[in-house]
Amino acid sequence: MARPLKIALVAGEASGDILGAGLMQAIKTRHPDAQFIGVGGPRMQAEGLDSYFPMERLAVMGLVEVLGRLPELLGRRRRLIRTLVDERPDVFIGIDAPDFTLGVELKLRQAGIRTVHYVSPSVWAWRQKRVLKIRQACDLMLTLFPFEAQFYEAQQVPVCFVGHPLADTIELHADRAAARNALGLAEAGGVVALLPGSRGGEVERLGSLFLDAAERLCALRPGLRFVLPCASAERRAQVEAMLVGRDLPVTLLDGRSHEALAACDAVLIASGTATLEALLFKRPMVVAYRVAPLTYRILKRLVKSPYISLPNLLAGRLLVPELIQDAATPEALAATLSPLLDDGQVQTAGFDAIHRALRRGASERAAEAVLQLVERA
């Protein structure tokens, strides 16, 4: 009898843990006795992963924080590579976290182990020379978006566009009335969702700006209400401090961002992955972002893409307004968002087309691509 498949996976944060668990489920439908080793969080472990160390040890953000943890991260990577070379899995799958996983993939591929990278880094937008390392490191790139696959095809990197798991799980038509009922909001009247980001720095730069814009929207549209989902207790305290002295009809939520998006009529949102969620809920949006002035000047030189938000990148055109840096003023945000409360159909029609294009059974397609790679080996 052939031995069971042995599959190694490494995820570095919660979003990767979700992707990894879905992929493992799909692999097990074809190979119920498959063995999984590597690094992952609670969802991947629940699917049977033997995690060599806590995934949280890889979840580090920011340059200074990375530098402080660099000796530990490099040591863990060296030990992980040695262990996996000894274990000889049929395939290694690095899930996002490219600064850590691409180095593992490179060493394992040099040792004769097939390698897959799941979720493309933003090489199409900046630091495009990273594609040279990707070409050396992985036998197959799995992308969530079609424009990423087009980039890799042009660079002669084996690639498979699998779609996005969120497009599979979020319904094509969200029930606004049910979401308002769940949040205790009256069905009648306009509601705007405010999503200034999930990290402290984002909320610091955008929180007061979004609340200032909300005050101006209230002046333009009396009776308008707001919902603001907070990613953590720390973010909620941060927003509560910003609300002191304001008289805004805003409901703060602990998490529940999907319910907020389903309940609202339009969204004022920070650029990031949350814009994809707003797109999938078919809610008209205005995207804003601010960074430190020096960072902005550097990024303007490095970033090759004409757009920063996922809806525009996916549409290949300016589908949603992007107000960046000095253009992101309370007056401009309110003036740009207000008309979308009456007529956002151009945006929502584009969102629907994108949702259907991304709704491809991502976990199943990813599993199929991985298993085909293993069979070819």
Automatic annotation (TrEMBL):
GO terms for cellular component: membrane. Its EC number is 2.4.1.182. It catalyses: a lipid X + a UDP-2-N,3-O-bis[(3R)-3-hydroxyacyl]-alpha-D-glucosamine = a lipid A disaccharide + UDP + H(+). It comes from the Bacteria. Pathway: Bacterial outer membrane biogenesis; LPS lipid A biosynthesis. It holds the Pfam family LpxB. One of its GO terms (biological process) is lipid A biosynthetic process. Keywords: Glycosyltransferase, Lipid A biosynthesis, Lipid biosynthesis, Lipid metabolism, Transferase. It is an enzyme of class 2 (transferase). PANTHER family: LIPID-A-DISACCHARIDE SYNTHASE, LIPID-A-DISACCHARIDE SYNTHASE, MITOCHONDRIAL-RELATED. Belongs to the LpxB family. Condensation of UDP-2,3-diacylglucosamine and 2,3-diacylglucosamine-1-phosphate to form lipid A disaccharide, a precursor of lipid A, a phosphorylated glycolipid that anchors the lipopolysaccharide to the outer membrane of the cell. HAMAP family: LpxB. This is Lipid-A-disaccharide synthase. It comes from Geopseudomonas sagittaria.
